[in-house]
Amino acid sequence: MLDKISKDKENxxxxxxxxxxxxxIRLLNKHGYNWIMIKSGFIAHxxxxGFIAHxxxxxxxxxxxxxxxxxxxxxxxxxxxRDYDYCMQQKDIYNRICSILTGKRKIPTESKxxxxxxxxxxxxxxxxxxxxxxxxxxxRYMQVFNCGAFFCGDYSTRAKDLAYATELYNxxxxxxxxDDKFYYKEWKFxxxxxxxxxxxxxxxxxxxxxxxxxxxxxxxxEVEEEERAYNGMLVD
Length: 236
Hints:
Blueprint: H1 7-22, H2 30-36, H3 48-54, H4 60-67, H5 84-101, E1 117-118, H6 119-123, H7 131-145, H8 155-174, E2 186-188, E3 194-196, H9 197-202, H10 209-215, H11 221-230
Parallel strand pairs: 1-2
Antiparallel strand pairs: 2-3
Helix pairs in contact: 1-2, 1-5, 7-8
């Protein structure tokens, strides 16, 4: 099941896209780009720079967003569908952007765009933190990536993100701080990407859960549930 995004992350997306449309296209950042590129009517153009180059003239991005509003209403989803809440949030975000672009609402201020804590700095706060464990985890995750199971660009960067996610669990567990919200708190990863540990693991399906469980020293019930849910073994 797809997770709804936090209000802070929503504000970062909305602020980036609206400033790009109303002020300078170069203000579009990865938060706005990663969100808008997968919406109906848009093409990723390989990367952020390519996207900016395509929409840089004559208010093209603003025009494209408004013209494609009706195509991003998720009308084919019903309340009984698995990802209904997520899709309705996506619709609301799109409509919020359109309202700002047409002058009906204001761009969210910077103060409302919370910036997640660095997961690296968080790990270093704990006595249990170990670079040896980080390096071991990177090697274990790289074994999977080197098998060619994924196409994800810089494998070493992704492995490092996963290694710190693993180490954070161990650090929290050392002081009994793991709770129901652990997998859903937003972090800034070494790659520069932001997100939750839950969303990071879901990027790779069920392939890496076994390694994660092994390196955290246990198969946590929540880890098992998330894995089964992703693979369609649970019915909501």
